[in-house]
Amino acid sequence: MLQRLITPHPRLRSINRLLWALWLFATPCMAELRQFDLTLQHHLFSPSTLYIPAGEKVRIRLINLDDSPEEFESFALNREKVVLGQSEAVVFIGPVKPGEYAFSGEYNPDTARGMIVALPPEQFAQKQAAITPASSEVKTATPPDPLTSEVSDAD
Amino acid sequence: MLINAVVLWLRETLPLLLLLSVLLAVWPAQQRKIVSVGIGGGALLVLLMSTQLRVISAWFDGQGLEIIYSLLYVCCALLLALAVYWRSDAQRLSVAMPQATHHPLQRSAMMSALALLCLCGIHGHNLMLYLWVYPHAQAEHTNLWLGSALGAGIGGSVAVLLYVAALEGARWWRYWPWVLLSMLAARQCAAAVAIWLQTGWLDAHEVLWDSSAWIDEKSEYGNFLNALMGYEATPDPTLVAVQISSFVAMLWCCRQLEIRS
Q: If both were cysteines, with which of A43, A132, B198, B241 could A108 make a disulfide (CB 3.0 to 4.6 Å apart)?
């Protein structure tokens, strides 16, 4: 039985090669996606409303600054991801239609909640133009790691 | 905290209990083996994963846990298909060599138990995270365990109802338990695809429809249908395609039972 399970069938070998090729092809594509940061601290998401462009796949980096784990969950977006304490995780979203998509922390649904708002490209571009340089909604360059950098007490 | 614990337990235990109930209905003579290997082995797997949680989570750019979960979902579906295949072997042998049916039946039951073990690893691990890794305040412990008991009780009740429905349904339509098993196998494949969409390994597309106005995913019916057949109110086309094709493939495997008997 074990022999039959581990001996690769010729068709399985070609499927295996195809999967590896897809993975290698997909990896460079992922690097060009827009990235947005969503920080969790004291069981509160920041920003509570995150604006993303509609019709485009985006990458959301979940940063958990609390010591306890949290499960990022969004029924509207079909996403569910556990983020351990003092760590970060990545979730891919989209392309989605313009609209509002609620998300929450499953372990603290009363406090850890927010909304992802997908804007049409023109509105998103206007929103981007209105964002101050200090804001961290969009990062195209690699951001400093908040887990290793000093966190201000004022936060 | 109480309601949260009930909901969380229900969401995590319902898929596991529904699979267990259908397996017990389909393999009545091997129930003890299925429960001991599936649940016992699953508990060991959960312990193993919990001790290496940080290490696993750091794999593949923070997506290690998702990889493990998706592999377990796929293994669960494949093991269910193997279980049906060996069951059909036993069916074929029962005609020609009745004395030789013992081993294929045992193998088929073992495959179904291993499928249960895979699912137990996923949902048990999620529960472990919530119950033990997440630091609950002392005052919340009573509500936590009460909610857990309620959630497990509700899930168990639904599973018992499904078990009875599977047995009673088989009296009216003998394919009914196999249809249930096919839906459960398709659900595992859909869950794996959902993870791959989330991690970006598969490209997501715009959803096919939005049926949340009819059956909300967060409602009781939505939770039940999600646990049974992977219902999503806003499904991705890839998800729907995989669900349908895996359901049909599993039904084909089950059909072999009929042909070989």
A: A43
